[in-house]
Design brief:
By secondary structure, this protein is an all-alpha fold. The protein is 60% helix and 0% strand.
Length: 67
């Protein structure tokens, strides 16, 4: 399938459409500023009460390598 055909197919998928719509709303709320967008995400993450896992910087995993 060509890239254009894949994009057209994704546009008909209701889940993909919903994700894109919500993404647009979140970026608009942050003034299309990636730093503000990330700050807001980190704030929501902290307020969620869920544990946050942070990996140390290092070499990327090799495909097929067990973690």
């Amino acid at each position: 399938m060509t890239e254009g055909a894949e994009h057209a197919q994704a546009g008909r998928d209701p889940i993909v459409s919903e994700v894109r719509r919500v993404r647009e709303q979140l970026f608009a709320a942050a003034g299309y500023d990636i730093r503000e967008f990330c700050r807001r995400l980190r704030e929501k993450q902290s307020a969620s009460g869920h544990p946050v896992v942070t990996r140390e910087p290092g070499e990327p995993d090799t495909p097929g390598e067990a973690a």
